[in-house]
Amino acid sequence: RTLNMWGLLPPLDAPHHVRKHEWSEFREGVTLGGDRSKGTLVDVGLSQNVLVEQIVEQGKRVTVAMGTNRDLTPACVRKVVPQSSPSEEMGSYWGYKVRYASNLSGVINDSPYKEGYDHIIGTSEHGETIISSELILPSFRHLLIAFGGLAGLEESIEEDPNLNGKGANDVFPCYLNTCPNQGSRTIRTEEALLISLQYFQDPIRRAGMAS
């Protein structure tokens, strides 16, 4: 019932949403039930289910290495690989992950990366205004861009006991207004997200070229 209107949503058409008639070296799939004596059947969105060598419980989302052999019969056994494999091996975008944090300091400090974030940027209407073409970012491996809610990142900082007494410029070395001259008093987070991603596109590309 919760998905009965999903067809009205605009398609992402992301690289990991591979079409049925296309072949890809990796595909996302869902594990199926049945005999597991030879592995696990996975529905990867093709005309036939594929067999992977690992034993995985039913109903799990997995990334399957399909390779170049287009044989879909059980004779061609494939492998479940880490979700990061397509990005690492092909260099293409392969979806996103969601992480829960109880406060802003948790977002920053509990990074999923062992070495943490190289560069942290906060976005706010109270931040510094720099034209996108003039913004210089340092080279980085992992970049964090933070967006606040209706009351902004300032409220998130005030309500975080781990950031007591700190201001936005103490928490974020780079604190930017990515939507100057916005006109309306507030911008919804989902609107600011799209505007800011466009704003950061060229600076991030330049930082990657410089690294």
Under the CATH scheme, the architecture of the largest domain is: 3-Layer(aba) Sandwich
Can you tell me the overall shape? elongated
Q: CATH homologous superfamily of the largest domain? A: SPOUT methyltransferase, trefoil knot domain
Mean pLDDT over all positions: 92
Count the helices. How many? 5
What is the chain-wise order of helices and strands? EEEEEHHEEHHEH
- Helix/sheet category: alpha/beta
Give Rg in angstroms: 22 Å
Q: Briefly note the CATH topology name of the largest domain.
A: Alpha/beta knot
Strand content: 15-25%
Family: Belongs to the class IV-like SAM-binding methyltransferase superfamily.
InterPro entries: Alpha/beta_knot_MTases, NA-bd_OB-fold, Put_MeTrfase-C9orf114-like, tRNA_m1G_MTases_N
Pfam families: Methyltrn_RNA_3
